[in-house]
Write a structure and sequence with these properties.
By secondary structure, this protein is an alpha+beta fold. It is 37% helix and 11% strand. The chain contains nine helices and seven strands. The strands form two sheets. A four-stranded antiparallel sheet has the order 1-4-2-3. Strands 5-6-7 form a three-stranded mixed sheet. The protein is globular and about 60 Å long.
Length: 280
């Protein structure tokens, strides 16, 4: 007797279902101008929407597709104590972004709206993942990295993020070398392609485009050389014209940077190895 077909097991907390629910709820919340958000208590999720006039973001203007999705948790007590829900964790996080957005020359807080959703802590981390999946690719989360992270540390030579390359002016990026992988033209294409996918209707064609986008290869502009010593490591440059042009664009003084072309450095390594090899 043939077995009857069974439907996939239903998971009421699955990311896809949770993402649809959260997206529906988030889309139903009012969009508040970022520079007009009033203090409120609680933690939860939020989404930023662009409404300015930069041509590169033109596809996002006037649509309900966020440019950034984030979270703010209420607390992480190691004793399991309930968090203080009177604290303004979500408002403070949104305010931090408002200040950060106000630093660059080509954007400002008035160019953005924000939606927010207060939630219990148990849903916040899972909810952020679900929203990122529902709106994917979210431009400032996955394509233009560098907006929401912490300031770069001092342990290794840091590169300018894609975000700080497109929106120069933040103090945290002052003096950093250019991005390791993308020129200005390559960043622009990356952003425009990502927005095009965001605007597509859900379905197999969009999924294929998104997978192709994620698998896109990048070309290295520069990287640190391997060195056992302390202090700044030499910089190996793979695309000299891009390296010089991009650092000039940001006013980076290369006179104090120990850099050399990667092909030259590799040739020196080969020659040194040949000198050290006993001749038979």
């Amino acid at each position: 007797m043939a077995s009857s077909p069974t439907s996939p097991q239903f998971n009421p907390l699955g990311l896809d279902l949770l993402g649809r629910n959260l997206r529906e709820e988030m889309d139903g919340r009012p969009r508040v101008p970022l520079d007009e958000v009033k203090p409120f208590p609680g933690a939860g999720l939020y989404a930023l929407y662009y409404k300015g006039d930069l041509a590169i973001y033109g596809g996002l203007k006037g649509v309900d597709i966020p440019i950034y999705v984030g979270k703010a948790s209420a607390g992480d007590s190691s004793y399991g104590d309930p968090p203080n829900l009177a604290q303004r964790k979500l408002f403070d996080r949104i305010s931090d972004h408002r200040r950060s957005i106000s630093e660059p020359d080509n954007i400002q807080a008035s160019h953005f709206d924000v939606r927010y959703l207060t939630l219990d802590d148990i849903w916040i981390v899972l909810g952020e993942r679900a929203l990122l999946r529902a709106y994917s690719p979210v431009l400032w989360n996955t394509v233009m990295t560098g907006f929401g992270g912490n300031p770069p540390g001092q342990g290794r030579r840091n590169a300018r993020s894609v975000w700080d390359s497109v929106h120069p002016g933040r103090k945290r990026a002052a003096g950093l070398l250019c991005n390791r992988s993308y020129s200005a033209a390559e960043m622009e294409k990356l952003i425009l392609d990502a927005i095009e996918i965001s605007l597509m209707d859900a379905g197999e064609q969009r999924d294929d485009k998104l997978q192709e986008f994620r698998n896109r290869s990048t070309g290295v502009i520069w990287q640190e050389a391997k060195s056992a010593g302390k202090g700044p490591k030499p910089v190996l440059v793979f695309r000299e014209d891009v390296f010089l042009e991009e650092n000039s664009r940001f006013g980076v003084d290369l006179s104090d940077v120990d850099w050399q072309l990667a092909v030259v450095a590799q040739q020196k390594t080969v020659e040194e190895a040949a000198l050290e090899t006993p001749q038979g």
